[in-house]
Amino acid sequence: MIHPLQAVLTTNDGNLVFCVVENNILVFRVGHSGGGDFTLVGRWTDDADKSALIKEKVLKEHSKQVAENNAKRQKTGEAIVSHVKVPKVPQPGKGAPAFYSMIRGLTLSSDELLLFACTDSDKSVITLGIDLQNPTDCLKFLKRQSLPKRPNAISLTSEESIVLVADKFGDVYRVSVDPNVPAVKESEIEPILGHVSLLTDVAYATDKHGRKYVITADRDEHIRVSHYPQCYIIDNMLFGHKTFVTSLCLPQWNPRLLLSGGGDAFICVWDWKEGQLLDSFDFSSLLRPHLNSSHLAPEKFQNEKGDLVEFTVAQIKTFRELNLVVFSIEQSNCIFVCQLDGASGKLAHLQTVKLPSHVIALDCSQSDTFCVTMDSRKSEDNFAEFYTYNNGLFRKSVGKTDAFNKCIVESVVSQNLTVETEEGIYPLYQLKCLRKRGEH
């Protein structure tokens, strides 16, 4: 069984496609023939040994406790213990949940020569160099910066060597990704701002005067606008969501606007600097024909009729120049396309793109094309599709899609990245777990 593509990212010209498969980043290059043929040109595997990190922490804590105990014995005149049995490193017991070395937040530098990502294995941000002159592997590992808590969102800043990273503990860190600057100990990294809830997304923004801001979203329906780098100064709180927020998006062609979505049945459009809600676009009627059994609320929280549905906005994306917004719903098989009025901030539905299986990841880095990856467990020849804007609508690029899927099959098999059973597939749908229940 071929593992679905968990994340996707393309360069602005579309010549490179980056995909995440399990704990691997694969890079595909489109051919110059115009037929859309693809070639695997790079692979990086996150092989960090988590057990070694756990052992190091256990031994460090053990040494600290021994030193404290000996200090107490010295004060009371007791004999100092020199030989102490080294503790065993804790191992997951029978029935413990599986650990997955997730790779999240694929992001390219502005010159597209560096690739950044967040890793679960050792709670790090990694920097990979991209060298297309290397005939065997265009990805080169350059740096790994460990963080105190697991990162789950990343954003570029105007400083080429700095990224902002949000973690699941509610903090945002300013992290150097410059390969020439050595990584520092995780204990030396201080957060620049914090929420009291799990952070779900982070974005860097500037206003018309060039002032810098950090926009953060969390599980408690909050969106905060903070000054940067003086993040202790809160400029605005954007209130409009009724439940958790999962995705923030600043259109490149109109950075005055901010789009947000999450566990609600609507997309919010904000003038984030003024703190004004410009539109609340309700998509529930558009989504209703595409709902399935996976959207039913858990039995414990279901209503008497058994028809209570819950859904989550997975990703909101915009294009560099087109005034269009595309967004996906977790575990649904469609992409919604809306037109965004730059002056009023109003959204209007333009198109619904129906797909053969559930959407996993979405990318709109190209000027007029989006790429979507899908849950391929039921159809092992349809991993991703490309859609290009033409005459007012997005249409499937059949040749490019077929060539890419063919290359995926050949590459994954040749790279020995297949899984034997569905139990070996990484979790694909995790956002719905953010929804708070009565016991919270």
From TrEMBL:
The biological process GO terms on file are: tRNA (guanine-N7)-methylation
InterPro entries named among the record's database cross-references: Trm82, WD40/YVTN_repeat-like_dom_sf, WD40_repeat_dom_sf, WD40_rpt
Swiss-Prot/TrEMBL WD repeat ranges: 238-280
Q: In which pathway does it act?
A: tRNA modification; N(7)-methylguanine-tRNA biosynthesis
Q: Where in the cell is it found?
A: Nucleus
Q: What keywords tag this UniProt record?
A: Nucleus, Repeat, tRNA processing, WD repeat
Its GO CC terms are:
cytosol; nucleus; tRNA methyltransferase complex
tRNA processing as UniProt keyword: yes
What the entry lists under PROSITE patterns is as follows:
WD_REPEATS_2 (PS50082)
- Name the domain of life this protein comes from: Eukaryota
List the Pfam families hit by this protein, alphabetically.
WD40 (PF00400)
- Classify the main location: nucleus
Q: What does this protein do?
A: Required for the formation of N(7)-methylguanine at position 46 (m7G46) in tRNA. In the complex, it is required to stabilize and induce conformational changes of the catalytic subunit.
Family named by the database record = Belongs to the WD repeat TRM82 family.
The protein depicted here goes by the name LAMI_0H17568g1_1
